[in-house]
Amino acid sequence: MRLLSATVTVAMLVGAALSGFALWTELSAQPVTNTPAPKAVGAEAQPPRQATSRLWPALFGEPQPPAPQPPAPQPVEPARNAPPKPPLSSLGYSLSGVVTTDTGTWALLSHPAGGKLVKVGDALERGVEVVRIDAEGLWLSRDGDAPELLAFAEAN
């Protein structure tokens, strides 16, 4: 059985080699130009026919140049007389505790709607983001402004 499989394998390798050689000779051969037979005297001479190209047309269309970039938006000037923002205590949050682990620092917040556990980068509400948590308390930034401290709730 081994002898039969070895014989068939060698025969297939020889066939593949011959097929590869035939393909190589076909692709490397110079294109044959068919010259027309000489015509009778007085016949109009025509230019030789050009060889056709073997290149395939683009399957998915022609490559397009990159689209021009839209103009940069004009920076919006902030209002000069913006009203002051209400204090952080008006949001209803109070800092209950801070937990420090190997993976990060977490803050426990209490709110009339329910407590929350937050870390740096979390958003409390729209435009209110946790910037830093340290021993002093929780630092919040409203609409990208300077951070404000939400200190621990006073014990009565």
Automatic annotation (TrEMBL):
Main localisation: membrane
Keywords, comma-separated and alphabetical: Cell inner membrane, Cell membrane, Membrane, Protein transport, Transmembrane, Transmembrane helix, Transport
Residue stretches of biased makeup (Pro residues): 63-87
Coiled coil residues, start to end: none
Subcellular location: Cell inner membrane
Stored InterPro entries: T2SS_GspC_N
Protein name: Type II secretion system protein GspC N-terminal domain-containing protein
Lineage: Bacteria, Pseudomonadati, Pseudomonadota, Alphaproteobacteria, Rhodobacterales
